[in-house]
User: Fold this.
Amino acid sequence: MLFSGTKTLRQIAAVLETGNLLFLRLLLTNPSAARVFPGEMYRSYLGLSGGDAWPCRPIFELLPNAGRVRATIEHIPSNVIGTPLEQLSALALFARATNATRIFEIGTFRGRTALNFALNLPEGGRVFTMDLPPSEDARGDASDRTNSSDATIISESTTGSDYRGSDVESKIEQVYGDSSVFDFSPYYGSMDLVYVDGAHHYDAVVRDSEQAIKMVRPGGYVLWDEFCNFGDYADVTRAVLDVVPRGQVSHVEKTQLGVYRKPL
Ligand SMILES: C[S@@+](CC[C@H](N)C(=O)[O-])C[C@H]1O[C@@H](n2cnc3c(N)ncnc32)[C@H](O)[C@@H]1O
Assistant:
């Protein structure tokens, strides 16, 4: 039911599985917060149980050689999309703990995650971050192909505005293209980390994930946003599970991230 193509069915299943008296109280006092309650509950359950259809693991179990790590994060207020602190910290820690020097991100938006990756790269490190070209035509076509939440995000995107003028801007290279047709081959095998956070419909996530796995070097990591959003972005979860070799994707505890490490 959680993977049903109908969002209402997914939401009913989510409430049946996680609903309790606190959910009812929230529904009465703050209905919009109640919408995210099933996801919060489910992620807590995954953390406590160790997983469900896929394993859920604390970040430092996924990075066993990390040792002591100090990462930097920068919060940027936003009224459109927010990245919870745990998730921003996890992205920064992945960059820092793996000693990444080359990161590719699909989906820049205003550049908050690109900035936070760049803050955790050494001198000479580079973040390539991709978004749709600024032209109305390219954005309109991509909006028509995707779902209404993505279309809203595309219309609100001022690509890169969060990192422009920052002290790490020189580490960030803005790439423009539509990831559904973009030629990623010049980047194959060369990335320490790839972050997939572009369009969220099934076909887009399949192609972006296939390309991400090709871009990452052996031993490198692919991370997906919205992998564990419990129903809201079921297409992302389904697509990742269809593309990643069976049993090799984990959920990063206390985040919505999925992660895959390419074998050495
Ligand atoms: C969720 S936002 C990325 C958020 C960003 N990673 C962050 O957390 O700061 C998704 C972005 O993907 C871009 N996008 C949507 N469809 C795309 C496509 N087909 N090719 C490239 N970018 C796309 C949108 O314009 C939007 O800026």
Observations:
- The pocket of S-adenosylmethionine is lined by residues 81, 83, 107-109, 112-113, 130-132, 142, 150, 153-154, 157, 178-180, 197-199, 204 (CB under 6 Å).
- The longest strand covers residues 216-224.
- The mean pLDDT is 91.
